[in-house]
Amino acid sequence: MRNSGWLPLLLVCLSLAWAAPGFSNEAPRERRPNIVLILADDLGYPYHGFMGSEIVLTPNLDQLAAEGTVFTHAHSSATYCQAALQTLLTGLHPRSWRAQRTRLEDTTGESFPRREEVQRYVTLPRELARLGYRTFQGGKHWEGNFEMAGFDQGTTDVRPSYLFPFDWFQFGRATQEPLTDFLDDVGDEEPFFVYFAPMLPHQPHNAIPRLLNLYRIEGLVAAAARYYANVSWFDEVVGRMLRTLEERGLRDDTLIIYVSDNGWEQGPTDRPSRIGGDRGKLSMYEIGFRSPLIFSWPGRVPENERREDLVTFKDLHATILQYAGAPIPPDHEGHPLRRRIRGRGDPDRDQVVGFQDLLRARPDEPAPVFHLRFEDAGFLRTDRWRYIEWLDRGEQELYEIEEDPFERNDVGPEHPELLAEFADRTAAWREALNEPAPWIDLMGRLTTEDQVPAPGLRLWLDGVQSQVRFEILSDDRGFFRFPNVPADHYRLSHELERPADAGQWRRSRSRPATESRLIDLTGFETGPFLPLRIPGSAPPIPPGPLASSAIEVEVVARGDVTTSGRPVEVTGFTKRGYLKQRVLTGPDGFVVLDQLPVGFYIVKVVGSSGVRSGARWVYLDQGESEPLRYKLRKKKRWNGRRSKAFRKKFASR
CATH class for domain 438-634? Predict the structure, then answer.
C-alpha cells in the first residue's frame, strides 16, 4: 500500500494526542435546549391580554410574552386542528401530507389504515430523538397513537377515530401527571421535547364556576362568557406546567414556544354556532388562521420584544429544528426564525399564501355533517392586503387588512388589477406546492424485531440512473440519515451485523451479511421515513459518550458560486475505531454530517477532472460542530520541459 509508511506513524500520533490532557472527550459542551411546544386549541388571536384584550384574562400567557419575543402575525396552515397539526408535526402543508401518503402507497405497494401513515413520515419527535432528545406527547394528537408518530411516551395510546379520545379531555383539564412522570424518567443530561396540547379552550366550554364568575359582565352574552372562561382555564393549565419546570430547576435550560392550532371568533355579544363565529374556525378569514407565536428562553431569547413578520407553521417547524441543532432538509420550505428572534436582518416573507378544501357550511345552506362542506378556496396575505378566492364559485374578495382586521369591507371591485395579480400569485403557489422535490433527505432507523436500536451498521445507497453512491453508519440510537439525495431509484443496502473487526483504526476487512432492496425516491415533496429490521440481537452501543458532533461543509467554485452534488468523503479515526462516510452537497452547496463520535477526521471534497480541492484534518470534541469551507480551483498544468527545469534547479540546491 502507498500509505503503509505513514499510517502506523499516524495512529501512534493519534494515540499520543488522546492521551494528552487537552484532548479529553469529557470536555464541557453546550447542552441542547429542552423544548416545550404549548398548543392552544381554538384560541383566537384577539382573546389574549398581551394581544390587547380588555376582557379576557390570561396572566400566565401575558407573563410568558413579557419574558420573550412575540410574533404577532403567525399563520396556521389551516383553520381546523388536524390539518394544522400535520404541519407542526412534519413541516408539510396538509395538501402535501395527502400527496405524500398517496406517493408512499404507490411506491411501496402498502395500504395504510386511516391515520397510520404517520409511521412512514419524518416527524418532529423522530428528528429530535435522533439527536438524543426524549420526547413526550400530551393531549390532542390525531395521527395514530404516540408511538406511531415517533414519541417515546404519550397520552394518546389508541388511534383516534372521528370521535375524540377520552384522554384528550383528561390531559390538562383533569391532570398533568403523565407529564410529571415523563420528567421523572428523563436523565439529567438528556434534553427533552414536550408536545403540550391540552384540549382547551376547545368545546365543551365548561369551565368551573370560579372562572365563569370572572365574566359575569353586563352586556356579555353567555356564549362569550363560557368561551372566555375556557381561555382562562387554559391559561391556568399553562401556568401550572410552567411552575412544574421552575420547581424542578429546568426553566433556564428550556425553550418555551406558544401558538394556537387555529383561530376562533367569539365577540362579546355574538351567539355563534358550536364552532364559533362564521369568520373564525373552518373559514378562510384572518381570525381563523392567525395566532400569536411566543418564544421564551431566559438569557437566550430577547425579552418583551414584538415582531410583525408574516410567519407560517412551516417556519415554526424549521425553527424548532434549528434550535435543537438538527439539519434542515433541502426540501424544507420553512424559514428558521432564530435570526429574526434576535432582531437581525429583515423579514423573510413578504406574503403568506394558503389553501383549504374543508370549510364550514354557509349560513344559507344545510350542514350535512358537523357543519362542514368540501370546497376549494385560497388566500394571500401581505402587509397591507388580504385576498380570498373561492375557486369552486369563481368569487374573489379583497380587504385592507390593517385598517379592516375583521374583513367587513370588501374593496375588490375598486382594485381589479390587484385581484388579477393575487389570483396569479396564488395559482403559482398551488402549482409549486404540487411539485416533487429534486433533493430530499432520507431518514430511517435500524432496529431488531423487538424495536431494539441497531447502532454502528453501515448502509449504502446506490443510484440506478444517477450513478451516485452514499455510505453512512447508523448512529447510537439506530437512526440513519442520507442528506441531499437526488430524486432517483436506488438500491439500499445495510449490514445485518457489525463486522468482527469493527473498532480498529482501519477499514474493516470482514464481510458481514447484508440485505438490499430497491426503493423509489421520485415524486416526493419530502423524504419518507424507512424503518428497517435486522434479525437476531442488536450490536451493543459502543462505550463512551454518545456520538453528537458534526461537520458542516460548504463547497463553492470561483466567484463564490455554490456547487451542488459534489461528493464529500469523511474518514474518521475515533475511539470507536475507523469510520467512513460519503455524501453529496445539496442545492445550496452545503452538507452536514452529524452524530459523529469524538475523534480525528479527514474531510475531502472529491473534485472532477481538472479541479482540485484538497483534504483537511479536523478534531471533533464531544458535541462540537466544525464548519469547513472549500473553494474549488483549477489544477495547474506543467509541461514536461518546465518540470525538468524546476527539478534540475532544486536538485542543484
Answer: mainly beta
